Amino acid sequence: MTAGMSVKVTDKLDKVVSRFYDLLVANPLISEFFKDPDVNALKRKQVWFFSSLLMETNQGTHDYMRQAHKGLVMKRKLTDEHFDALLECLVQALDESELTPDEAKTIVQSAEHLRDAVLYR
Ligand code: HEM
C-alpha cells in the first residue's frame, strides 16, 4: 500500500518538475540563466531541486544552496526579481498539477525559506 502511494506521489512530482522547467526556460526574465551549456549541471538541478525543498529545514541544504548559486549572484547578478519569477513558475506548475493545495503550499513555503540562501545572503 505504502509503496503504491509513494509511486503515485513520485509520478505527480515528475510531471510538476518537467512542467516547471518548461515554464522556466520560457520566462524571459530568467531564461538566460538556463541557457547554460553545462547540461549536466542543469540536469542535476532538475533532480535535486525538489529534494532540496523537501530538506529545507536541514542547515546543510542552506549551505549547499548558497554555494550552488554564489557564482550566479556574484557574476550574473541574480536578485530577488529573478527569484520571484522562478517562484511564479513553481506556483503555476503546482496549480496545474494533481498535488493537493496543502502539498503545493508546503513546497512553495520551502522555496521561500531558501530565498536568502539562494541569493547568497
Ligand atoms: C528555492 C529556489 C531554488 C532551489 C531549491 C534551487 C536548486 C538548485 C540546485 C539543487 C542546483 C544544482 C546544484 C548542483 O549542481 O550541485 C541549482 C543550480 C542552478 N540554479 Fe538553482 N535553485 C533555486 C533558485 C534558482 C534561481 C532563482 C535561479 C535563477 C533564476 C537558479 C538558477 C540555477 C542555475 C543556472 C543553476 C546551475 C548552476 C551552475 O552553473 O552550476 N536557481 N539550483
From TrEMBL:
Keyword Heme in annotation: yes
Keywords, in A-Z order: Heme, Iron, Metal-binding, Transport
Keyword flag Glycoprotein: no
The protein's name: Truncated hemoglobin
UniProt source species: Kordiimonas lipolytica
